[in-house]
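Regression test case RT-17, inverse folding.

Input:
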């Protein structure tokens, strides 16, 4: 934080590979490592065990921006769902600070949802991201 200013949407830059420049309305991503307590005799945990690492994400685009993805897929001769896994970078920084970058590694497009209704001022498309690798937050690997 500089002079009380926190990060805001204007501080974020989202990069997709293959030279695709699109405007993203929102991006959400999360990950978790399944962790479960292990019990022995008595009612208190004696330790814990870990299971699968599960990253996931979602982004929302204006329909015009989504059309750029469709055009890219057409240029490769592949459907959008068949584009090989790619990274998405999310960088953010306040003025005068070095940027911090999160990398969503091994992304593929999952469910794609479009919705339009009477009175809408814009058309948006939601895309679920299948993250096949991991999320690296400012250089720190999650697992």
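Golden output:
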């Amino acid at each position: 934080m500089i002079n009380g200013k926190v990060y805001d949407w204007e501080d974020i830059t989202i990069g997709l590979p293959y030279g695709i420049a699109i405007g993203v309305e929102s991006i959400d991503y999360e990950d978790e490592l399944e962790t479960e307590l292990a019990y022995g005799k008595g009612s208190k945990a004696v330790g814990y065990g870990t299971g699968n690492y599960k990253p996931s994400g979602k982004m929302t685009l204006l329909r015009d921006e989504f059309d750029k993805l469709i055009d890219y897929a057409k240029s490769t001769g592949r459907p959008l769902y068949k584009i090989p896994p790619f990274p998405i970078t999310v960088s953010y920084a306040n003025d005068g600070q070095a940027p911090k970058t999160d990398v969503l590694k091994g992304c593929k497009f999952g469910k794609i949802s479009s919705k339009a209704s009477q009175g809408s001022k814009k058309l948006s498309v939601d895309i679920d991201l299948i993250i096949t690798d991991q999320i690296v937050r400012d250089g720190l690997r999650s697992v």
